[in-house]
Write a structure and sequence with these properties.
The chain contains 4 helices and no strands. By secondary structure, it is mainly alpha-helical. The longest helix has about 110 residues.
Length: about 250
Amino acid sequence: WKTKMAAGSSNYWEDLRKQARQLENELDLKLVSFSKLCTSYSGATTRDGRRDRYSSDTTPLLNGSSQDRMFETMAVEIEQLLAKLTGVNDKMAEYTSTPGVTSLNAALMHTLQRHRDILQDYTHEFNKTKANFIAIREREDLLGSVRKDIESYKSGSGVNNRRTELFLKEHEHLRNSDRLIEDTISIAMATKENVTSQRGVLKTIQSKVNSLANRFPAINNLVQRINLRKRRDTIILGGVIGICTILLLLYAFH
């Protein structure tokens, strides 16, 4: 009976060891893939220099959202495997404290300690990789947000600069138009003064010619012709000045 009990206990221990080794193998493969995921995320960031997870300009094989979902899924799977391996190690610890296996306690404790060390190493590696992935993702989120704000600011500044440049050009055009109008008015005033002066001179000449015409009737016809030509010249001069003034004003407001 004792022999059968020892054989049953031995089989139970071997089953626990098989479960532990199977879980450890699965964990090893999962942790390798998990580490590659973190490395590819960091590598994509390094290659792109400034990879923006909110931008669609660059589309790597796995974008940010796909990697995040894969990260969450693998993290849950690894946590479940670690919990199962922890349960198996606890069962192995309970078995080593069974009264019937005292003679083999040293060897069993050595095996149990080795499995515990492996579990501790896997747990430490998982936590470290997970923390690195989260740190990289948070850094990329922060940098992406900052770059987005900077680009928005640059875009707004560019629009404002173009508007300011247009306003300055329009202001300069108005100033030039004002100067041209002032010059035109000055020319018109000078022309008016000149015409007024010439009119005074012509009136003086006319009065003298009229006095002569009154003295010499034969000259009266000549004086009338001169007066008609003078009026015609005055009308032509006034028309020319008016047309020039209108053309200058049209050019200034064009």
